[in-house]
Write a structure and sequence with these properties.
This protein is α/β, with parallel strands linked by helices. It contains 12 helices and 9 strands.
């Protein structure tokens, strides 16, 4: 079974939340893979989201090191232009061979996702991650219908249509997501601390964190101490 699917299933059965760390390819290329995975497992993180910043072929090699050799579920984030250059069918095959669990392509419109998704139908292989935002509207239901693995739920987007309601508009957004959910939902709300995320996690199965960590690594380079401290903020 797909590594991430297995963890999602186990966590739903136990009521635990899944935590996924976002990191850039460049940062991980300067860090010992076994050290990174050791820290994530110690801090109860269930996966890593690898942002492809260089050549896709090199990123796939790094993903394989983490997924196959280090036994860490990996989500690969990349642009669709890189997938087209690599070749859609070849990319899907390489992602499966690398042991990648999920693929996120933020610039791939919903209407055009089928040309890649058709190559990602194996239940044991990687799945194409469907993404929703506060502006998704009816697309929330559509993305749930076609989703495999989990749905990536972002806080980015226009929430003006909820501005007439009292309280936090993101809470109402998550009510709509929870009502439509047919798959696990993971939040990407850009939070730095678990306390900032906790009220939203009541409506979700986990969270994806690490935006400010990415900025730190861009500025100062990889540090095992910083990684450990950051992950410690989200211990469940």
């Amino acid at each position: 079974m797909n590594q991430l699917n297995r963890i999602l299933t186990e966590n739903q059965e136990t009521g635990k939340k899944l935590m996924v760390l976002r990191m850039e390819q460049k940062a991980l290329q300067s860090a010992p893979a076994d050290e990174v995975v050791s820290i994530l497992k110690e801090k109860k993180f269930g996966g890593i989201s690898l942002i492809c910043t260089d050549a896709l072929a090199e990123c796939l090699k790094l993903a394989e090191e983490l997924a196959c050799r280090q036994q860490m579920p990996v989500i690969l984030e990349t642009g669709f232009h890189k997938v087209l250059k690599y070749g859609i069918a070849d990319f899907a095959k390489a992602a499966a061979s690398a042991g990648i669990s999920g693929i996120r392509i933020p610039d791939l419109p919903f209407e055009e996702q089928g040309q890649l998704a058709v190559y990602l139908l194996d239940e044991d292989g990687p799945f194409l991650i469907r993404e929703i935002t506060p502006a998704s509207g009816d697309r929330i239901i559509q993305n749930m219908q076609y989703a495999r693995g989990f749905v990536w739920c972002s806080s980015e987007g226009n929430t003006e249509f909820l501005s007439g309601l009292e309280g936090d508009p993101l809470i109402y957004y998550l009510y709509a997501v929870e009502a439509a959910a047919t798959r696990p939902v993971l939040l990407d709300f850009g939070n730095r601390y678990y306390s900032e995320l906790q009220e939203y996690l009541n409506s979700a199965d986990g969270a994806i964190v690490g935006r400010d960590l990415i900025e730190t690594f861009r500025r100062d380079g990889y540090s095992s101490r910083l990684l450990s401290e950051f992950c410690g903020r989200f211990e469940l």
